[in-house]
Design a protein that fits this description.
The complex is a heterodimer. By secondary structure, chain A is of the alpha+beta class. Chain A is 45% helix and 15% strand. Chain A is built from 9 helices and 10 strands. The termini of chain A are far apart. Chain B has 2 domains: 14-27 and 49-121 and 207-322, no CATH class; 130-204. Helices cover 39% and strands 11% of the residues of chain B. Chain B contains 12 helices and 6 strands. Chain B has helices at 55-63, 76-87, 89-94, 105-112, 130-148, 154-163, 169-176, 180-200, 257-274, 298-318, 333-342, 354-357, and strands at residues 102-103, 211-220, 225-235, 246-251, 280-285, 291-295. Chain B is globular, with a radius of gyration of 22 Å. Classes of the chains: A alpha+beta, B alpha/beta. The A-B interface holds A 1-3, 7, 61, 76-77, 97-103, 105, 132-139, 141-142, 145-146, 149, 152-153, 229-231, 233-234, 265-268 and B 99, 140, 143-144, 146-148, 150-152, 156-161, 163-166, 204-219, 223, 226, 237-240, 273-275.
Chain lengths: 308, 375
Amino acid sequence: MSAPVGHAEDGPSAPLADSVDSGVRDRVLERVVGGVGRATTDLPPGDRIEVTLATVRRAQSRPETVGRPEPDFMWKPTFARRSLGLAAVRACVEGRFRGPAAAVGPLADDAIDEWRRSGRRTFHWEPWFAGLGPGGRAVVLAESVTWATPLWTAFDWSEVGSRSVVGGADDLWTCPVPGTVRLKGRCEARIGAGGGGGDGGARGDAVRVPGSGRAGHSGGTAALVSLSGGSPGDGWREELGYLALVAVLSHTGRPAPVRVTGLWPDTGDRRTVMVDDELLMAAADRVVATVALTSAARYAAMGTAVSA
Amino acid sequence: MAMDENGHPKGECYSQYGIPGGPESSVSSEGDPGTIPPSVGASPGRSSCWQPLAGTSLLDRLRSTGRARPSFHPTLASDLRAFVERGVEGFASSSATDHAPSVTRERLTRALACPLHRMPDRSTDRSFSLSLARGALMDALFRQVVTTGTIGDASADGLEALSLDEFQVPLVAWIGQLSPAERSELRCEIERQSDGLLRRWPALDPAWLPRTRETLRAPLAGGRVDLVARVDLAIGRPSRSEASVALVETTSGERRQSHRHDRHFDALVETLRRGVPPFVVATYFSSSGEIDVDPVTPELLIGAARRCVVGMQAMVASGIGRIRDPGDEPFCAGCAGELSVVTAPTPGSTTVSPVVAARPPVDEGILPFPRERAA
């Protein structure tokens, strides 16, 4: 956790300078589509690849693990903490609670009550959480508090809160190539450029972007905020750039984010990259490399299965 | 460990044991006498008037160390980093692994320990014991108390919490296989300690941002080595300008010297990662309600840095993550003394045991630190 953003000249509230024009967008799109198309020529028919920030990182830091089958999904506290933690930060930004420690319990209780009353799931994990006893619930709440606190203390929310989206929907973009390659960009917060915007789910003053079906900002997104575990690796710039890339590709009618701020609470790191042609191209190359690695791993696995 | 007449280790001030009115105590004389509950599990030999701190008194003990909030020279953190990094050059270059090796308090303590005192490596040795089970359960229950302020059935709550942690699933299975007598013993102790926790541990204002099991990580030497700690509880909003965070570790067992070294290591890692140290580090003993509080000073951090360097160099000498051949290692003064009795020269002989003579006690204070930077 670092000092509030008001102290950082490169933080999300710093002046805007949109350097991504339509020409840049076209070149980035061409780089991604061309590269992904070449990388997936051997992808088994019907196979799908979903690229996330985690897979982009893994492709560089632990390439041997890319393409391995994922274990069967089971809810666990570390899966639930992000959604509950984001809700806690959002509630704190709105002034409903004095800190994440006060917010997580009531928010979880409200979600369970709502699910029991109407069947609607706020977080998806309500049935699992409702089946836990006090010891298990305490773990989920504690994990959420510890996850949320660095995000809550990273910014001067009184300054940026009114034009921020905490959480919100992921950016999604499907690459127009044979086979299905989808990019998912997940940010913890989007700081607006001012003059409007907000969280469509929580604040009620969002601007709907035509065709997207999701909330956005009338003034564009000044900064994306990403929170990660561990420490920033060698490729942290391109990895933050990946989030901007997905935002650019998935929202063609919207100004590109100007910067991406990464928070690594474990190490206390806070780093910001400016979004420009060079960063987006580098991020596009990382996407292509990730897809190529995944595709090759899948192809090898298919060959192994056939020979077996 | 030598104890005084009240059951406290000699040479350590009373204020560390939460006794109002000690030489460094900051607890006001009027501070909540009514909230102090009767002692639970007081150590034999302790004065009958001794009471563990509770509620706001316990909180005051943590918040007010009896010293002014320390101010630090702006370059202290960078000097500490440079000092530790110089000391780990061999460590970093000797690593043959693809990923940065982690230096944790446990590995450091193991590397520095006398072979006869060395604790098992929990990352590889998954043998279990009642004390290990008690510790894991109390860690989970402490977290529950901090987060929710309640405990229902202590054993059930603790076991459920552990069962959600993949690493602890084998321990849960081991507990399930205990004999009825052992399980009853464990349950009784867990209930006793959790009862004390519930009655004494203060509710923490959410504005103080209490968070549990916070990971502290300080990459060194360009990311080739990571100093890593995970603290049971961190309180306070981090700041770039002043020491504002308190780090608390809880333990369900007896006091050991390594507890204090561990807390100092936590303070060092926090300082390296943020550039600002915590203002206090503390160990809370759930078995007795005692709390050891160490105000963080430049001297404390320098000592921790020296120990860290010596420990990492010992790890280099032995091969990272491996246990050294005990024949090559120094024994602590106590063990060396006992060994000298065992191997004492027979009457008429002038031969001194080469084993003892070749193994001087570990001296962790041999590395110089630029003292002028400590001010």
